[in-house]
Amino acid sequence: MALLEILEFPDPRLRNRAVPVTVFDAALLRLVDDMFETMYAAPGIGLAASQVNVHQRLLIMDVTEDHSEPLVFCNPEILAREEVGVMEEGCLSVPGIYDEVERAQRIRVRAQDRHGVVFERDLEGIRAVCLQHEMDHLEGKLFVDYLSSLKRDRIRRKLEKERRDRAPAGRAPAGAAQSR
Ligand code: ZN
Question: Which of 69, 88, 96, 123 is deepest in the core (most CB within 10 A)?
């Protein structure tokens, strides 16, 4: 198992549109394991492959505190959505930023598990919101896209400043080249 690097806004690679998962092999299982390790270490409750620079339609989720409900969704499709509501969201690719986003609070999803077996599942509340948030990543979309452009620019500047402050003196921070 290995920790993967999580891309951070405004890295342009987060804007890639993911392609369907077509091969369910040992490499995919390893990727899923590495994504769980990376998500739990962050810590976070959801992670899309796009965020670790793998542009395939794969996402994982575990909203429990004791890591007891690991869920894997390959090629997810939302079949039904109900009850729009607002919840505060955060994102491992937009560290330290939280804001309210309006989404369906109940959904039915069809996906494939890590072995390619098709399943359907009803999700509600935080699980429903998390799934929609992670599915946005597969389209190259981030939760800050739902905020005003003013707010988004402020967030971008704040994160860029934090990355500059974090970088060793005299060295450009990772991602600086793309963000200019
Ligand atoms: Zn996210």
Answer: 123
